[in-house]
Amino acid sequence: MIIDHEESAGPQQCPIEVLNDSSNSLIPHVLVSHPKSDEPDSTANRTNPTLYPPPNNRDDEGYLALKEGALYYVEGMRLLSSEKTSESIACFQAAEIMYLHAASRSNIQSFANLGYLYHYDRCAGAYFNSVDPSKAESPSEALISAVLELGADERAYYCFLHAARRGHAESCYMLGDLASSGKGCQKDEKTAFEYYMRAHDLSLKYDSVIWGNAAVRIAMCYERGIGCQKDLNEAHAWYARAIKGLDSSTHTNGRGKSKMLDAAKNGMKRVEQRLS
């Protein structure tokens, strides 16, 4: 069994078949399948299994593995919303393996996705950990083998860090959250503030949800003096900016949009009351 389960998690049947003839690979070769329907009770009725990596190994940038991982993750979230906890964990475990395949091919988005999977402990501690560092054949695989020796919080930190260093804006504000709380890393409020600023600046040209999310966090920092000098006028300006970004987004509820928009509006009211 390649997936280690904590006693609290209990044994689960992972909806991905691991092949025994992949002993020379850091991440095992697998057969993937997905439900034929989006209904919660359709898990048993799955598509015919397909091999990954494909026979010609043509997934150089990891986008196929990323897509397969995302499908498993969505399936896991659907099952979780239906309170099918054990089934959801099995899907998240499958998502982890596919994201690791993508990450081994230096796919930056997959590192961010792994960061979220570990940050929210989607597998309840039952993560993939059966790797032989000597099988690492690239810098990405060497990083993966090192990360998989850590706990979930530390895994999240290093996955977000790797993506952030390569310009992934969303990973930057997640790193800010980790640095602000000290989860998986040393608490450092100044560094958290800097990551929020970097997330905002990196995403300005292409994603108002990301820079809107970052702006809310920056506003909170100015309001409370977290990692910066307390400044209610700056806080007010950043809350206004956050509302503009989140309100203008075409995403219905992407990346916690509704929750963060409410936080921005409430923050604006608090600051206005204190400035009046």
From TrEMBL:
Residues 32-59 are annotated as: Disordered. This is Sel1 repeat protein. It holds the Pfam family Sel1. It comes from the Bacteria. InterPro entries: Mitotic_Regulator, Sel1-like, TPR-like_helical_dom_sf. The lineage of its organism: Bacteria, Bacillati, Actinomycetota, Coriobacteriia, Eggerthellales. It comes from Slackia heliotrinireducens (strain ATCC 29202 / DSM 20476 / NCTC 11029 / RHS 1).
